[in-house]
């Protein structure tokens, strides 16, 4: 009985989520009401209130769930391991896993983070990603005063660039696979913008 009830809950939440995204795409998040969502989902308002307090609470709760998943995936990223894959010119599997998760939820991210959603969620996502990356990198980067770029500036640049690149990919209907985008991110991270853009050739390794 419990399993059947849980499945019903999951199905109902999925209906509500799909209805939310449809409503945002039609009229923008600021104008979406509980009644709108219930009508599109073909459910009553009481069913909505069994799960969420209001529209903003629904969006925040779902966003938190998505961010928790992404944070756990980011925790598995190892800068040194990434470097080993980069040396072989192979996309780092743990980065590809993050991209696969994002592509699976493409409609959610493009709708909530898009022009009809709420820009504050983009800033919130960047803040969470920066924190997760900083916690990861500070374990591996000495952070000495001799470093050309201080770690906090480096991470601010990396997260803004990565989020912008990924959003562009999602908004353009995923023309590349997660593996291909992973290769691009690896290329930029490993060789920088000048080499990745083709302005300067990649330095040849000396054996």
TrEMBL record:
Alphabetized UniProt keyword annotations: DNA-binding
Known DNA-binding region: 33-52
InterPro entries: Homeodomain-like_sf, HTH-type_Tx_Regulator, HTH_TetR, TetR_C_Firmicutes
Keyword DNA-binding: yes
PROSITE patterns: HTH_TETR_2 (PS50977)
A Pfam family reported for this protein in Swiss-Prot or TrEMBL: TetR_N
GO molecular function terms listed in the Swiss-Prot or TrEMBL record: DNA binding
Entry-linked Gene3D superfamilies: Tetracycline Repressor, domain 2
Residue ranges occupied by any HTH tetR-type domain in the UniProt entry: 10-70
Keyword DNA-binding among UniProt keywords: yes
Name of the protein in its database record: TetR/AcrR family transcriptional regulator C-terminal domain-containing protein
Biological classification of the source: Bacteria, Bacillati, Bacillota, Bacilli, Bacillales
